[in-house]
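The records we work with from here on pair a chain with its fold. Each token is a code from a learned vocabulary of local backbone shapes. A record is reproduced here so that you can trace the correspondence yourselves:

_____
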Amino acid sequence: MMLYNLHTHKASGDPDVLEIVNQYPNEFDPSVAFYSIGIHPWYAQAERLEDDLRIISDKLKEANCLALGECGLDKRIETDINKQLSVFEQQLELLEQNPKPVILHCVAAYQEVIAVKKQMKVEVPMIIHGFSKNYQVARSLLDNGFYLSFGKYLLRNPELESVFKAVPDDRFFLETDMVEETIFQVYKKAASIKSGAIEAMVAQNFKNVFDNNK
């Protein structure tokens, strides 16, 4: 069965894995089979914002662009949160013309992301990548319609296992992000925690969220 990697920064080239490779508008690689594209809050630059938004808008029209992102909010960096909110919201506005799911980078700003989703009435699926928090945070996100993607923290933080186990089978994804471990290792770890066929669960979730692109 095909495995699905929700978020990675480097294509593996494995024919048995469909992976969404993260791309930045100013460093776009046309050789990538499937990708997401967005302005990461770490790399938002005012002098480049107009060009970046134009590139993202153009790429969202392409069939092999599966998602907007990673984009979002990070309260642990020096960039003013209001500036981050502006860049984040401008990206979400692009989805009005070309609706795609959103892969989110979110650090210490979960309530703000939830608020943006409500205020902008975002209807496309929104996925928190690299989830690492407790069940209270997970429950708040799930109750507000978000999906959660698990990767390196699931491999390295035993306390996250109970959170992952409690997430509904139809609301999670798996990823590698920037770690050395393969998506096969992430699936193996996930299967050791959740009962049932992990591959089938993720495949169905991927179909539910991304099939409108195809």
